[in-house]
Amino acid sequence: MRRYLSHQFPNEIKTYASLLLASIASVVIITLFLEVSDYAQHSFKSLIGTAPYLSLVITPIVFVGIIYIAKYYCHYVQGSGIPQLIAATDSRNKGIREQLLSFRIALGKIGFIFLAMLGGAPIGIEGPSIHIGGSIFYGFNRLLKLNRKFLIHALIAIGGSAGLIVAFNAPIAGVLFAYEEIGRKLKKQALVLIAIVSAVVYWFAVIYRGNSAYLTDLSSHSFDLTLIWQLVPLAIITGVLGGLFSKLTLYLINKFISHSRARVITIALFLGVVIAVFNYLSQGQIAGSGRDEVLQILNNKTLGLDFVVMKYFATLTSFASTIPGGVFMPSISIGAGIGSEAAGFYTQTDAQVIIVMAMIAYLSAVVRAPLTAVFVILEMTLSLHLLIPGLVVAFIANFISKQIFTQPIYEALADSYIKLTGK
Fold first, then answer.
1. Least confident of 66-75, 165-174, 180-189, 397-406
2. Domains of the chain
3. Mind giving me the DSSP string for 93-137?
4. How many Å apart are CA 329 and CA 122, to the nearest integer?
5. pTM
6. Crossing angle of helices 387-404/232-256, nearest 10°?
7. Is 142 exposed, middle or buried (0-12, 13-18, 19+ CB in 10 A)?
8. End-to-end CA distance of the chain
9. How far is CA 338 from the centre of its chain?
10. Which of 64, 132, 143, 258 is most buried, judged by most C-beta within 10 A?
């Protein structure tokens, strides 16, 4: 037994000390990142709320500047950051891991997200938080100098888990995401080490900033399981929309690939103008992560079908541009909007429950990690008692999405990084 455990866990005390330091650093740095990002997006929304026309100037300039600099000088900070972690755990090449994950990358990600939020980009912070967490933990490997691939990959997955836990205060979802998405090829035994360190991260996070729900407390809302069949149409619709989102994103990214600086600037300007128009029409409502809008929807404020449409295409445009930023929270806000519109058809169920189910289903359809989608949203709303209907809609939406686009979006995006290894 001792021999088995020694094979699955680090042997040196300094390794555990470094893991503790990395856990503390992740909590502090990611919390700071969330605070500055929140400040940036609210600053933009306040400005655009009083002068919407300014988005037509600010947003295109920010998109051109960030996309150009990221492409030619900081290429590995692009996008959400989750594909970088997947590529790093798939790669046998130490050099590519050093490029994808480092303290420098984490710092660059924080800076770019802050600027993008100031410019009105409709982006999330969870993917970047996961990338930052992975970069911090892997950065500590310079001290650890782990040589076994198993432990190196586990370290990266732990960092990704830490990022999601700190971003959403969702410990179960963090562990599941590390194994379901980042560490698909990790040995099952790695889950034990990931779970233990993730629990330590969560403990530090609670001590550092408290233990409040990321969204709101829906623990008083229930669902009659005899009505579960009524959720099938909602799961199918969100599955189709999520699958189309993934397919269109990959199509547009490939379409926009260019090695001409003039064309890169032209495309960035065009995409920035598209986002600017959506910001203008919505008076800044579609900018940022979408958390504020989800809270409004859960508090029975109807934002309308126009919000869903604009947020959907604005997020698609932003994600396809490869500007640094995540898609989790924007997807959750789209799902919330869909659920709000559909709630009127479910007279026997609380509107908040339908909204939660739509959030789960749409997120599952986009990221194709159904267990993560279920637990991250139920933990954010303190509604784990809705687990059974949540699992049903998540797996149906995931299945429908898979029929439209077979490969999960993060894996497809990770392929471009994996190719750099020469495998």
1. 180-189
2. 12-214 (1.10.3080.10), 225-420 (1.10.3080.10)
3. -HHHHHHHSSHHHHHHHHHHHHHHHHTT---BSHHHHHHHHHHHH
4. 10
5. 0.91
6. 40
7. exposed
8. 36
9. 19
10. 132
